[in-house]
Amino acid sequence: MARIKNYINGNFQNPILDNWLDNYNPSNGEVYGQIPNSSKEDVEKAYTSAKSAFKLWSQTTLEERSRILIKISELLEVNLQRFAEAESLDNGKPLNLAKVVDIPRAASNFRFFGNAITQFASESHESVGHQAINYTLRQSIGVVGCISPWNLPLYLFTWKIAPALAAGNCVIAKPSEVTPMTAYLLGEICNEAGLPEGVLNIVHGLGTTTGQAIIEHPNIKAISFTGGTATGAHIAKVAAPMFKKLSLELGGKNPNIIFADCDYEDMLNTTVRSSFANQGQICLCGSRIFVEASIFEKFKKDFVEKVRQLKVGHPSNDDTNIGALVSKPHLEKVKAYIDIAKNENGTVLCGGNEVSVKGYENGYYLEPTVIEVTSDECRVNQEEIFGPIVTIMPFNTEDEVLEMANNVKYGLSATLWTNDLKRTMKLSNQLQTGIVWVNTWMMRDLRTPFGGVKASGVGREGGFEALRFFTEAKNVCIKY
Ligand code: TXE
Fold first, then answer.
1. Which of 151, 150, 200 lies closest to 175 in space, CA to CA?
2. Do 233 and 265 belong to one domain?
3. pLDDT 10s digits, 366-376
4. pLDDT at site 371
5. pLDDT at 406 > cutoff 90
6. Where is the active site (predicted)?
7. Which of 36, 85, 243, 447 has the least CB density, counted as fewest CB within 10 Å?
8. Span from the CA of 231 to the centroid of ligand 1 (angstroms)
């Protein structure tokens, strides 16, 4: 059985204490490999190698760092098929999705930050009348920790690693223990691209052992984390008293607000995608759909009809729209919300059942599910489900829907469907989220700030925001 290894100091290594975890294939429920459950000792080993690599890497020219990152990007593109197959096998997502979204985006992350670092500039301030000039240095931090989740494994892993490396830091990174495979394969590519030993170290294992060892490490000076809100709160509790820099990208419960004046067909097609892409396991999915009352019945009929056409199937089939959920415990969690909804007077309009895929009967498949709710206060409208379940309910006025949209603890993103300019401006201004999409969804320009407010986290990723996070500003004031 294939064993994934830690990538430390440019080598593939077994965990020091020889502890291993099973790795499951979500499409058939079988164990298909093992991964290290790395201990404090492994993290310390990774830290030692990162620390000794830092001196050289932080002084490596921007052109050279850029060249290596772009080389990693190119190698990911060359290995697209292999990486996409590994991602789909490990996560349960359709192979086609991994091929057009996950792996290309991971390549883009390296290319983007490889280029961005050559354009990153710092400020200078002339103190007029005081004969002084200030200039601000943006210095690499040192050894930083990057911890990522299972829903977009390589995509989110590299979204942190690429800016951290571009800014001259050395990295200890931990992918989710549920989806470790593509992070493991990335090590090979980094070696081939000529990334010096120790600059990137990838340790595998549980959050509570390996992740905990990273966040507790006294000399890992910044933590960039994407994952659940409860984990984010725990990380903040541990890391804040140690004065680590923190970027926390957490959960979402995003409103999708549909007005009668929108471009209906475009809205309908995009809403199917924003509801169920990646089995609904994207923090940006619009899981609360609010529809203006005048088109509610029409929308309900058309939407349900389209959702019923989605094909749940094995991830490697070309015609599969919805693959397997990531794990058995996650499937159980998501399924439980269907009963919760029913107990709260929700009406299941379609879906609601597990799917038995022929030949893969033990896989974690669930029908895409649409639930009509009568109150915005119900649990399925308040809690992050993170699966193929959306709720729909009607609204009458802008103020009413704005109130409901903001009436959750989360604040990651919102989608607005309307052609009314004044309404667009007003609602975009007043929605309590870090991101608003108008007449589109998940359109990403990597230069833009990415992140949430309220329980969706603190800090922004993307563009120069990420490079600012992964550097320390130091002001130098010179009197002349
Ligand atoms: O995430 P965790 P889980 C949401 C979603 C999901 C819920 C829980 O609602 O159902 O979170 O998912 C590491 N110290 N999102 O349990 O545990 C862990 O090993 C350091 C939203 O999978 O937060 C993994 O690498 N690290 C989300 C990473 O944190 C720790 C995407 C995320 O795992 C740790 C995924 C610790 N003590 C889930 N404990 C999004 N925002 O996109 C865990 N980890």
1. 150
2. no
3. 999 999 999 99
4. 98
5. yes
6. 249
7. 243
8. 6
Give the model's pLDDT for residue 305.
98
Contact 203, 36 (CB under 8 A): yes
Per-residue pLDDT tens over the stretch 436-452: 999 999 999 999 999 99
CA 413–ligand 1 middle distance (angstroms)? 19
Looking at the fold, whether 324 and 246 belong to one and the same domain comes out as no
Q: Give the residue-averaged pLDDT of 373-398.
A: 98
205 and 278 co-located in one domain: no
What is the CATH classification number for the domain harbouring 132?
A: 3.40.605.10
pLDDT of residue 329: 98
Q: How confident is the model at residue 1 (pLDDT cuts 50, 70, 90)?
A: confident
Are 211 and 127 contained in the same domain?
yes
User: Looking at this protein, which amino acid is placed at residue 197?
Assistant: E
Q: Say if 450 falls within a structural domain.
A: no
Q: Give me the DSSP letters along 53-122.
A: HHHHHHTS-HHHHHHHHHHHHHHHHHTHHHHHHHHHHHH---HHHIIIIIHHHHHHHHHHHHHHHHH---
Share of the chain above pLDDT 70, in %: 100
Cα(145)–Cα(220) distance, integer angstroms: 6
What is the structure's pLDDT at 140?
98
Note the pTM of the prediction, 2 decimals: 0.98
Residues 219 and 262 in one domain: no
Do 263 and 222 lie in one domain? The reply is no
Mutate-to-test residue for ligand 1 from 144, 231, 383, highest number of ligand atoms within 8 A of CB: 231
Residue 465 neighbours by CB under 8 Å, 6+ apart: 449, 450
Choose, from 85, 177, 249, 461, the residue flagged as catalytic. 249
Q: Give residue ranges with CB within 6 A of ligand 1.
A: 147-151, 174, 176-177, 207-208, 211-212, 215, 226-228, 231, 234-235, 249-251, 283, 384, 386
Query: Looking at residue 414, which CATH number applies to its domain?
Result: 3.40.309.10
Q: Ligand 1 centroid to 145 CA: how many Å?
A: 15
Pocket test for ligand 1, best of 23, 144, 147, 444 (most atoms within 8 A of CB): 147
Question: Which atom of ligand 1 lies at the shortest distance from residue 234's CA?
Answer: 37
Judge contact between 69 and 57, C-beta under 8 A: no
pLDDT score of 365: 98
Closest residue by CA, ligand 1 atom 11 = 228
Report the C-alpha gap between 377 and 407 in whole angstroms.
8
Is residue 130 included in any domain, yes or no?
Answer: yes
Taking the centre of ligand 1 as the mean of its atom positions, its distance from the CA of residue 4, in whole angstroms, is 20
Question: Are 252 and 259 in contact, with CB atoms under 8 Å apart?
Answer: no
Work out how many domains the chain is built from and give that number: 2
Closest atom, ligand 1, to C-alpha of 330: 10
Residues 407 and 464 placed together within one structural domain of the fold = no
**Is 256 a residue whose pLDDT tops 90?**
yes
Q: Is 201 within the bounds of a domain?
A: yes
Residue nearest to atom 6 of ligand 1 (CA): 228
User: Do both 355 and 463 map to the same domain?
Assistant: no
**Nearest C-alpha neighbor of 94 from the set 444, 365, 352:** 365
Range of the domain at 137: 2-250+456-479
472 is an active site residue: no
